[in-house]
Structure formats: C-alpha cells, structure tokens
C-alpha cells in the first residue's frame, strides 16, 4: 500500500473520529469547524476536476458556489412564508427538503457553468482566467443589487432545511450528511479520472493536437468537465448556506474563488484527496492562527509559497514523496 493511500485513509479516518470525539466531549463548535472543512473540501473537489484533470485555471468558481447558496436561500426564504414563490397562492412543495434544494442547486449551477464555459473556453491561458474572473464579478455585483434578497447585507435563513429521517439541527447528523456527500463525490472523481472520459480529458490538457487527430474535440471534453465541476461546487454552496443559515454576495467574490483554488493547490492539484487535505489544513490554520492574530493570512501565504516552491504535489504529494513525480 502506497504512502499516499495510507495518508488518504488516515485523513478520512480523522474526519470520522474527530467529530465523534467532539460529540462525546460536548464540543459542538469543533463539529461545526469540521463541517465547514468538509463543505470547502467538496467545493475544492469540484474545482479539482476542472483544474486538476482538465487544466482549467478558473478564478470564477465562486459563481457556482454562490448560485448553489442562493438557490437554497431563495427557496428557504419563500418556504418561511415571507413572500410567495410565485403569484400563485401556494408555495412549491418540498422547498424545505434538502434533496430538492440540492437538485435545484446542481441543475442551476450546471446550466450557469454551461453558458460560462461555452464563452470562456473560446480562449485559453490568461484570457480564460480573466473571463471567468469577469463572470464572477458580474454575479457579485448583481447579488449586491438584488434588494429582494437582501442585497449587500445578504439574507438570513431562520430554519435549517429537512432531510428525511434525520434531525439536521443536530450538528453531528448534519456533519454526517455533508461527509457522506463528500465521499460520494470523491468516489465519483476517482471513477471519472480512470474512465475513458477522464483519460481523454487529461490528454486534452497535455496534447490537444493528438486528441483532435483521433477525432475527439478537446473543447467539448473541457466543457463537460467544467459543467460537472460547476455542479459539484454549486452543491457545496447549498450546504454552506444551510450550515451558516445565511447567504450573501461574498459567496460570489473573486477572493472566495481564490480561496477555493488555494485549497486545491495546498492539498495537491490533481490528487484525489488533495482538496480534502487542503481544506482541513486551511480551516485548522484559520482557527488556530486566527485566534492569535487577525493577520493570519501572512502565515498562510508563507506556507503556500513553500508548497509551490518545494512541494509541487501539495501536502499529499509531499507525503507521497517520489510518488508525486507523475503529476
């Protein structure tokens, strides 16, 4: 068994045991921190499909995170009875059901990724980065101007949505739900990268001309990957809104897009558990160093600089040693 596999297993075991320990010692805040790490890992896992396999450096992935969050927030807002969802005298059934909200968040985020991808993938390199950034800023300022749903102040959600058979208000149960979704996405990502689509997408990143020579369209492959990536990140946004019971335009900000990318780079670009390692490290640093100084990002920057210069495979690649060289 490789060192990377052992590290991944230890990381997953830690995600299982730490919340249980927190529950037994009556430390609900630790469970909340772990839930935040898992949701951020889910968002980063979505980006890792586009970035790690497809080589698409997107500075606009917060768009899909924000769309997922607002999809959840808007449905919850109307389910709370403030205003009818439509002019009809009823609220659509199921607007407080998590599976319904997840489906809406995934579909809307995927459609947004399709439109953005069709326009952005006409360019490459720095131009692609700037177009995705421009879309992020467009959605950010639209959310600020959307006064019906809080505008710049955001929108509070007073109740957490429901999941059949679970008490989602119990921190440990909501955490278990988020962790289960992360595991499903990681299994999906593992199968995707080994499937013919994943192998073709990797080839499109490295040698697109050869891919065209065998009759495959690199742009179409990258577009599909971008849509899948956006859908997963949108799901993470819906969970994040449910965790905080609040949505705001900052979910669309370019700073948050950069934060998601930092998680992937920190953990290891293209590594299956890279987003998980990056998210856990980020949340741990935020909690520990944030309690010491408000300028804790300085230390994060130094760590990220060290990773980029001396551990190109991220934390996961550093643990794996020479096994990281194939990236």
From TrEMBL:
Organism, as annotated: Tritonibacter horizontis
Protein name, per record: Leucine/isoleucine/valine transporter permease subunit
Keywords, in A-Z order: Cell membrane, Membrane, Transmembrane, Transmembrane helix
Subcellular location: Cell membrane
Keyword hit for Membrane: yes
One cellular component term from this protein's GO annotations in UniProt: plasma membrane
Membrane disposition: Multi-pass membrane protein
A single GO molecular function term of this UniProt record: branched-chain amino acid transmembrane transporter activity
TM regions (residue ranges): 38-57, 62-80, 100-119, 126-149, 169-190, 223-240, 260-285, 297-320
